[in-house]
Specification:
The chain has helices at residues 10-20, 30-42, 114-128, 150-153, 227-242, 273-290, 314-326, 370-386, 407-420, 435-441, 466-482, and strands spanning 46-49, 55-59, 71-76, 98-101, 104-107, 137-142, 164-167, 175-180, 182-191, 194-196, 201-209, 245-252, 262-269, 299-305, 310-312, 330-334, 342-354, 358-367, 390-393, 425-429, 446-449, 454-455, 463-465. It is an alpha+beta fold. The chain folds into two domains: 10-181 and 399-482, Zn peptidases (Aminopeptidase), CATH 3.40.630; 184-393, Alpha-Beta Plaits, CATH 3.30.70. The strands form five sheets. Strands 9, 11, 12, 13, 14, 16, 17, 18 and 19 form a nine-stranded antiparallel beta sheet that branches. Strand 4 and strand 5 (104-107) form a beta hairpin. Helix 1 (10-20) packs across helix 3. The radius of gyration is 24 Å and the shape is elongated.
Length: 483
């Protein structure tokens, strides 16, 4: 073992290092799927792959555990592919570069993929263990969890037999999740028109960067900045005061990540360039003051650009900036059923110019109340429809209704208490998990979700805490041995 030499459990870290070498973007999991099937063949384990790409690897019970119920260990193959702007990395070809930094494992300039590579590694370590007592185990590795949960939604009834499922895709050691929010995407296509830029005009490029970003479910309540919103606020003000025109606007990336960076090119009358530069300096200083506690890395830059040939018309500029300004982002409602948890939220995820006539704007909404999920999705749609955009909603995915009488929950809580001498926190999570979809096809399934501590998930700041990986592993082993 190289990077993780000396870390425990050794087998888990060995497998995680191997997983980091295999490209596995969402919707492009062919390489990791093939590797899993070859892993099963090499270890003489029964395995199969369904038509959507999910992989199931089975291991028989150890002696004396043959009558124990089958347990499904579930994780997902894909990872969120985010990198810092200056980093050169092809997620379809290049390996992730993990390293140890004190108590944490991180990646060099990219997402680490511990979500959910660490869950995969734990399942593989169980499959090859020789000293852990357990009943029959079915390890389910799903595809495309991060961009629509299509692996879980495409899962066919009967693909696995277990009625107890341990979801290995949570991010807080000492917490057990028994419910999650449902979600839906709202995708906007805003048409625009352009006209020629005049010789007396001036062009600048304005960028917002250095934000933390993060998971649009787990981190939406933490007061983090959205780069699209911060940039658009300034552009909107320039539109109102000076009549600027937008040339391009790019920001954010994935629907389930809070936008960390955004950049726009704009044109205006050359005589305004000093006023706009002064306004920019004032605004940048104000944003540093506003965000100094939650976004200390916030950085705004303005630079002169060559004059482009075309820019959006004043009308198209106004529709874009007005709609982005009016579009809600962040926590919409807190839960009354589970105090301290977000009930409903929305994420303004990305803005992209597509072709020469359309702007693609991606948003996502979450709630553990289905009607409220649709309410906030319709609110977002209404904003953009007022601007003349075409709006489409994705199929969405269901929430997972908590079951506090769960037998596997009671066993997991007791196991945790016996290991660590304290009670774990039992709660729901605002992020989406595949468990709700499993229940649609396997209504008798008894499930919990748990994992080690991860931070900065869905951003290049992603990291996993080494100590909690070992604690989580011990807890997983104790559950399997106790069943």
């Amino acid at each position: 073992m190289g990077v993780f030499k000396g870390l425990q459990p050794e087998a888990l870290w060995e497998y995680f290092e191997e997983i980091c070498r295999i490209p596995r973007p969402s919707q492009k999991e062919e390489k990791i799927g093939a590797w899993l099937m070859e892993f099963a063949r090499q270890h003489q384990l029964e395995a199969r792959q369904d038509k959507v790409g999910n992989v199931l690897i089975c291991k028989e019970a150890t002696p004396g555990k043959e009558d124990v119920p089958v347990v499904v260990l579930q994780s997902h193959m894909d990872m969120v592919c985010e990198k810092n702007a200056e980093v050169k990395h092809d997620f379809e070809r290049d390996a992730i570069q993990p390293y140890v930094d004190g108590e944490w494992v991180k990646a060099r300039g990219t997402t680490l993929g511990a979500d959910d590579g660490i869950g995969m590694a734990a399942a593989l370590a169980i499959l090859t263990s020789e000293d852990i007592q357990h009943g029959p185990v079915e390890c389910l590795f799903t595809v495309n969890e991060e961009m629509g949960l299509t692996g879980a939604s495409g899962l066919e009834p009967g693909f696995f037999t277990g009625k107890i499922l341990l979801n290995l895709d949570s991010e807080d050691e000492g917490e057990m999740f028994i419910g999650c929010a449902g979600g839906i995407d709202t995708v906007v296509r805003l048409p625009y028109e352009e006209t020629a830029v005049q010789p007396h005009q001036f062009a600048v490029r304005i960028q917002v960067k250095g934000l933390q970003g993060g998971h649009s479910g787990d981190d939406i309540h933490k007061g983090r900045g959205n780069a699209i919103k911060i940039l658009n606020r300034f552009l909107w003000d320039l539109k109102e005061r000076y009549g600027i025109r937008i040339v391009s606007f790019e920001g954010g990336n994935l629907r389930n990540a809070i936008a960390r960076e955004a950049v726009a090119v704009l044109v205006f009358d050359e005589k305004l360039k000093e006023k706009i530069r002064i306004d920019f300096n004032i605004y940048a200083a104000e944003m540093e003051r506003v965000w100094k506690l939650t976004e200390p890395g916030l950085n705004m830059e303005l630079e002169t650009m060559d004059l482009p040939e075309k820019a959006l018309t004043p009308e198209s500029t106004g529709k874009l900036l007005n709609a982005l300004y009016a579009c809600p982002h962040g926590v919409f409602a807190m839960s009354y059923r589970m105090p301290g948890m977000v009930e409903t939220s929305t994420n303004l995820a990305s803005v992209r110019f597509e072709g020469d006539s359309e702007i693609l704007i991606t948003t996502s909404q979450r709630s553990d109340v289905d009607s409220e999920k649709m309410n906030i999705a319709h609110m977002v749609a209404a904003v953009f429809e007022l601007a003349g955009a075409k709006v489409e909603h994705g199929e969405g995915y269901p929430g997972w209704v908590p079951n506090r009488n769960s037998a596997i929950l009671k066993l997991a809580v007791a196991s945790y208490q016996s290991l660590f001498g304290r009670e774990p926190v039992v709660r729901s999570i605002h992020a989406g998990l595949e468990c709700g979809l499993f229940l649609e096809k396997y209504p008798d399934m008894d499930m919990i979700s748990f994992g080690p501590t991860l931070r900065g998930v869905h951003s290049p700041d992603e990291k996993v805490n080494i100590k909690t990986v070992e604690m989580w592993w011990k807890h997983l082993v104790r559950i399997l041995e106790t069943l």
